[in-house]
Specification:
Length: 152
């Protein structure tokens, strides 16, 4: 193990990546106090450590608010298995939409830059709002997390 690898073992980022510190998105396990203590325990935090710590402080209350609000949503389905099947179907639909997205190059030469891909939108016939690939992907993953959180 070289010197750089040894230094990276004790960074805040590496500890978060290795799940030694619960992340703000892990709302049920996350504690702002524990987040702060873990960061303070790093003798010389890197810039990446500082950015991650600050991002965690910003995201934590937002994830907590979303979790609190989403727990009171009534999907109109009382059977947990039926709700799970519904969400799995939705995820499969979203994945199919993402896979079938076709983008036209603005320049007409067939070359797309990353910004064009990220900013592309899919307009469903059944939805008033257009959604980009990232939105569809995120919705699909989040859609599975909600009904399955009590099953795991």
């Amino acid at each position: 193990m070289n010197k750089k690898e040894k230094q990276n073992i004790n960074t805040f980022v590496s500890k978060v990546r290795k799940n030694k510190i619960p992340q703000p998105s892990q709302v049920l396990k996350f504690s702002m106090e524990q987040w702060g203590k873990a960061f303070s325990a790093i003798p010389t935090p890197t810039d990446a450590d500082k950015r991650l710590y600050d991002a965690g402080k910003w995201f934590a209350p937002r994830f907590q608010a979303i979790t609190k609000r989403s727990s009171i949503i009534d999907f109109g389905i009382s059977d947990q298995d039926e709700l799970t099947r519904y969400h799995c179907g939705t995820v499969n639909r979203e994945a199919q939409l993402i896979n079938e997205m076709v983008l036209e190059s603005a320049s007409g030469n067939g070359v797309l830059i990353a910004e064009q891909i990220v900013q592309s939108k899919y307009q469903s016939e059944t939805s008033a709002n257009a959604a980009g690939p990232e939105d569809l992907d995120e919705a699909a993953v989040d859609g599975l997390r909600a009904p399955n959180k009590n099953k795991v």
